[in-house]
Amino acid sequence: MPRLFGTDGIRGIANVDLKPTLAYALGRATAHRLAGSGRAIVVGQDTRRSGDMFAAAIVAGATSMGVDVHLVGVVPTPALAYITGAGKFAAGIMVSASHNPARDNGLKVLDEHGMKLDEDVEDDLERLIWGSEELPAAQADDLGLAIQDRELLDLYLNHRLALAATIRTSLHVVVDCANGSGGIGAGRILEATGARVDVIFNDPDGLNINHECGATSPAALCREVLARGADVGFALDGDADRLIAVDAAGRVVDGDAVLGILALDRLGRDKLPNGALVVSVLSNGGLAEAVEVAGGQIIRTPVGDKYILEGMIVNGAGLGGEKSGHVIILEHTTSGDGVVTALEILSVMARTGRTLADLATQVPMLPQQQRTIPARHRDQWEGDLKLRKAIARAESRLGPAGRVLVRPSGTEPAIRVMVEGTEAGLVVELADELAALAGERLN
After folding, report:
1. In this structure, what CATH number is given to the domain that contains residue 411?
2. What's the confidence (pLDDT) of residue 408?
3. Integer CA distances (angstroms), 91 to 70, 116, 143, 206, 226, in order
């Protein structure tokens, strides 16, 4: 039986392979394993049309176990993490598929500290999900309640507004909310810095989340930054836990460059704990070189922000993240938060008087290409001799400065191929060849 939990919760096509019956079972399992008698859980969602369906199913499951469920409504994932960790709740469940298209949805379970679960706890939940109807249910007089609790969002907003108030700038900012849940507070928080803020793609209809906008499709933001003569642009994804930046010339500054900017700034001020930056195996070699030349150290982890956080805690690091734009700044948050990342960028720009483009020149990137290939047999790539030989040949052609990384996606039925090297043309060629072969061999 395949594992339910991937690198970022349980995901699938809503009402097809991710059904409300599973959300109901997860509600029962979470109530039993993480809450128990006398404690409550909190549930949030992004702007997908299927969110109400899944939230209702979770409520039915958890309340049937005698556990109250506080419904905070549409919120960013980092907001739900902050609310859960504020001390009142035994667990939180976020209904979101993050950067995925609207047809998908997901279920992310957080512990009482607002952090993603350890794998052994996920394994416990999986066992309970498959046997959820056998769990001891509450009697009629002891059923839990569904409590509409939108005011909980103020806990998060007030914290982020206070952080924004420590930054003073008059920069012109465009923020793309991806028609997702970040739109409930992103503009207001950024404006608290004194910046002039234009908000775009903040008209969710349940179906347009991440559609030709947001962190996974920043081209529209690039155009708007240029057209409006803005100083900087920020693109969130559907649940606002990641961010991609755009400079005044309309050029994308991805998560690796942002991490480099923040790490170098903190190294220069002796504010980077242990001089350490935690990144995933996908992060660019140019980022690693820039940080190491400046006297810092790079610590690599598997892909997934929960592994980044684990690496940060183990190594006493205060900064970590991924090329995709997940950035964790432990002094402010234990999860990726695109709005906090935007505030940090604005802080560096305001303090140094440098443009984003100028700051990004400190982190020269090696040519890198990534491909995502739909693959029915994504977990079988290591056993495919033809594919492994092709990878070895590609690594040989790239030389010692090059890398090839192939891995199954943790969030969708796909294989991901990353190729990095010193020659851009060769990197593109090899990425295309390996992607084509993977598609042929794994389907």
Report:
1. 3.30.310.50
2. 85
3. 11, 10, 18, 26, 43
pTM above threshold 0.85 = yes
Judgement on whether residues 207 and 323 belong to the same structural domain of the protein: yes
Domain assignment present for 2: no
pLDDT tens figures, 218-236:
999 999 999 999 999 999 9
Cβ(344)–Cβ(188) under 8 Å? no
Q: How far apart are CA 248 and CA 394, in angstroms?
A: 37
Number of domains in the chain: 3
Residues in the chain, pLDDT under 50: none
Residue 3 lies in a domain: no
Residue closest to 210 by CA, chosen among 200, 223, 201, 219 = 201
**Structure tokens that stand for 378 in this block:** 């994504």
According to the model, what pLDDT value does residue 382 have? 82
Domain residues for 429? Answer: 368-441
- Do 256 and 125 sit in the same domain of this protein? no
Out of 50, 96, 98, 283, which one is annotated catalytic?
98
**CATH number for position 66:** 3.40.120.10
- Residue 192 C-alpha from the chain's centroid: 24
The H-or-E segment that residue 122 falls in is: helix 119-130
Q: Where do the DSSP E strands lie in 46-126?
A: 68-74, 91-95, 104-110
CA dist., res. 402 & res. 118, Å (int) = 33
> Is 98 designated active site?
yes
